[in-house]
Design brief:
Blueprint: H1 32-45, H2 48-59, E1 64-66, H3 67-70, H4 77-89, E2 94-98, E3 101-105, H5 108-117
Antiparallel strand pairs: 1-3, 2-3
Length: 124
């Protein structure tokens, strides 16, 4: 069992979708807790293989990808599984087992939260 915590994605009061775990970087300095949360996300994406896997899932037709479709990233299958587990532990991916295969999905709220964190003022 992992002791990693998932990124908290909050539903804003205005109903406009997921709010980021942290304010946009340009809004105000982050608190220590907000910085810890954002750092977990960036740490998980800080590995080139993980970033490729995350991108492969996010861009896959239908919004989800079978591990059998995204494992060609230049590392062995056990290493792919390790990296997918890290992305899932960071709250960036969800998974569902269907028969012998596992399907991964990037929740739209995660992409929205990541985008809002890095948004410049006035950009929409």
């Amino acid at each position: 069992m992992s002791n990693a915590s998932l990124l908290p994605l909050l539903e804003p009061a205005d109903g406009q979708g997921a709010a980021p775990c942290c304010p946009p970087l340009t809004e105000r300095p982050m608190t220590a807790e907000e910085a810890e949360t954002a750092a977990r996300m960036f740490k998980a994406l800080g590995d080139p293989v993980r970033l490729r896997l995350f991108s492969a899932v996010a861009s896959h037709e239908g919004g989800e990808a079978c591990v059998c479709d995204i494992s060609d990233v230049g590392v062995s299958q056990p290493t792919v599984s390790h990296h997918l587990k890290k992305l899932k532990a960071a709250g960036l991916l969800t998974s569902e087992r269907r028969g012998t295969w596992v399907y991964y999905r990037v929740e739209s709220s995660v992409l929205a939260a990541m985008g809002k964190l890095l948004t410049l003022p006035g950009a929409a």
